[in-house]
Amino acid sequence: MQAQPSRDGPRVNEEIRVPQVRLIDQDGEMQGVMTAREAVQRAYAVGLDLLEISPNADPPVVKILDFGKYKYELQKKKNEARKKQKVIEIKEIKVRPNIDENDYQVKMRAMKSFIEEGDKVKVTLRFRGREMAHQDIGIRVLERIRAELDLTTKVEQMPRMENRQMVMVLSPK
C-alpha cells in the first residue's frame, strides 16, 4: 500500500507521512534511512525544504532542497520544451487539370517551401464541367507533382476523389 502524492506534484515537508525515508542532503550525499520527522528537522535546520523525490521506492527517497527554486526550474524546463515544439500545419495548394507550366512552377516552389518548413501539403485538384470525363489528365498532374517532390516527401494519402475534386496529401520525410 503505497501513498500517492496528494496534489499535482511531489509532497513537501509535513505532507510526507511515511514512517521511514531515505534522505539525500542538500549536497547530493546519501544520509541513509531515518524517520520522516527527523528528516524534516534536518531540512529546517539548514533553512531548506524536504521534497519527496521517489514516492514509490521502499522506503521513499526524499531530498533537502529549496522548493521555490525547484518549482522555478521545473517551470523553466516546461517553457523551454514548449518553445522547441513545432506545430505541423496542413497547407493546401489548389491546382487544375489543365494548369499552365508557369503556374505549375509557382505552385511547386510554394509546395517545396512548405515541405522545407516541416508542414504537410494537401494538393487539391479541382474538376469543372466536362473535365470530370478526363480524370486521367488530373491523375497525371498529381503524379508529376509526386514525382518531382519524391526525394523530400512521402505520400501520406494517395490521390482519391472527393466529389468534383481529387485530393493528395504529402508530408516531409
Characterize the structure shown.
This protein has 173 residues and is of the alpha/beta class. The protein contains four helices and eight strands. The protein has a four-stranded mixed beta sheet with strand order 2-1-4-3. The chain has a four-stranded mixed beta sheet with strand order 5-6-8-7, with helices on one face. A hairpin with a 5-residue loop joins strand 1 and strand 2. The chain is rod-shaped and about 85 Å long. The mean pLDDT is 89.
Number of beta-strand segments: 8
Summarize the helix and strand pattern as letters: EEHEEHEHEHEE
Shape: rod-shaped
The amount of beta strand, in percent, is: 25-35%
- How many angstroms does the end-to-end distance come to? 48 Å
- What is the makeup of the main sheet? 4 strands, mixed
**SS field, number of helical segments:** 4
Mean pLDDT: 89
Catalogue the unreliable spans: none
How do the strands line up in the largest sheet? 2-1-4-3
**Taking Cα atoms only, what radius of gyration do you get, to the nearest Å?**
30 Å
Helix content: 25-40%
Derived from helix and strand composition plus strand pairing, the structural class reads alpha/beta
List the helices and strands and how they pair.
Layout: E1 20-24, E2 30-35, H1 36-45, E3 49-54, E4 61-65, H2 67-84, E5 90-95, H3 101-116, E6 120-126, H4 135-148, E7 153-162, E8 165-172
Parallel strand pairs: 1-4, 5-6
Antiparallel strand pairs: 1-2, 3-4, 6-8, 7-8
Give a nutshell description of this structure.
The protein has a 4-stranded mixed sheet. A 4-stranded mixed sheet has the order 5-6-8-7, with helices on one face. The chain is built from 4 helices and 8 strands; from the N terminus they run E-E-H-E-E-H-E-H-E-H-E-E. The chain is 34% helix and 31% strand.
